[in-house]
Amino acid sequence: MNTTARLASVGGLALAATTLLASPANASPGQHHRSPHPVFVQTDNPNGNTIVAYDRHDDGTLQQAGVYATDGLGGVLTGSVVDHLASQGSLAYDATHRLLYALNAGSNTVTVFAVHGDHLGRRQVISSGGTFPVSITTHGNVVYVLNARDGGSVQGYVRVGGRLSRVPSWHRHLGLDQSLTPEFTHTPGHIAFTPDGSKLIVTTKANGNNIDVFLVGHQGGLSARPVVTADPGAVPFAVTFDRRNHLVVTEAGTGGVATYRVNRHGTLSLIDRALTGQAATCWIVGTGNNLYASNAGSANLSGYRDDGDGTLTATGTTATDPGTVDAAASSDGHYVYVQTGAEGIVDEFRVEHDGSLTAIGAVPVPGGVGGEGIVAS
Q: Which end of the chain is more exposed for a tag (fewer CB within 10 A), N or C?
């Protein structure tokens, strides 16, 4: 049955404003060529959020191709230093439909771009359904946004063509304690679908030290309440999945990485836990059997191998520029790109056969100090 028709039957679809076409803010005519494997980086600049597009060369190095305004503002949580959003995944790429979703934390909006190689066309700017959006995830025709302030909330949308329609009934308030400070450690950190789309994961960081799992209905709506797994003192921050769909979680409070089995009804079973021995282990990216956790306070990455059973084996530590934050892996698994927020730089690495990383270069991100959000195709 047609997804749009089914949702319309229960009401609540809100079509957004007129399609907007974006032009690069500072790209020369020679920079409009189409890159088959671009990398996109969000600046989260409070004076005007932008997406910086980079072409990926055959050797994995990047070259700036253009800068695109989101028509929104970045935001800064109190207490933040190198990542103003204190989150993972403020930028999401839907490769199937060639759409890029960007969050404007300072404007409480989501910007939808059409992707044509390294060129972006702004399609839509729509409300995030809450205050201070920090993370976004997509599966099929469904998109969910995590809002950090006012106790935290999640808001769901359905994709109709190249636009999003907000579904009011797909809103869930997290009920986090708004009095806890600083915001940086006490606002939710990440939202992510499980690979099969049947569950939605939310981390609460130090505001409860919980991993929330919402069950996702066949139309895309959420269970009334999440199944909560407590992770006392660990400050669960960001998540990814290994190749057998085990949940992998960074734990900023203890400087660790943990793996879980996601059970049918939303409970989690711990498989393994490894301590990085580094400071502020907050972000994580996976490619193949390899996992790389970003340690913002140590300016490095902690590497682990997970052959699919959830057991973690350390593969070494790799230095980065100061303020190691969000990261992305190329679709072929050969390269990893890491945002470093202290100076607004993306570090480039080649993934070796043993899982170790070799530095191959770095590029500046204009206006990207404190920025978060990176995707690679």
A: N
